[in-house]
Amino acid sequence: MRFLLASLVLALGIVTTPAHAGGAGELKIGITQFPSTLNPNIDAMLAKSYVLAMARRPITAYDQDWTLICLLCTELPTIENGLAVRETTPDGKPGIAVTYELHPEATWGDGTPVTTDDVIFTWEVGRHPLSGVSSIEAYRRILSIDRIDDKRFTAHVDRVTFDYNASASFDLLPAHVERPIFEAGPGEYRNRTTFDADPANPGLYFGPYRIVEVVSGSHIALEPNPTWYGQAPAFDRIVVRVIENTAALEANLLSGGIDMIAGELGLTIDQALAFEKRHGARFDISYKPGLIYEHIDLNLDNPLLKDIRVRRALIHALDREVLNQQLFAGRQPVAHASVSPLDWVHTDEIRTYPYDPEAAARLLDEAGWNVMKGGLRHNQAGERLTLEIMTTAGNRTRELVEQVLQSQWREVGIDARIRNEPARVFFGETVRKRKFPHMAMFAWISSPESVPRTTLHSNEIPSEANNWAGQNNTGYKSAEMDGLIDAIETELDRDKRARLWHRLQRLYTEDLPVIPLYWRANPYVLPKWLKGLRPTGHQFTTTLWVEEWRRGDR
Question: What does pTM read for this prediction?
Answer without folding.
Answer: 0.80
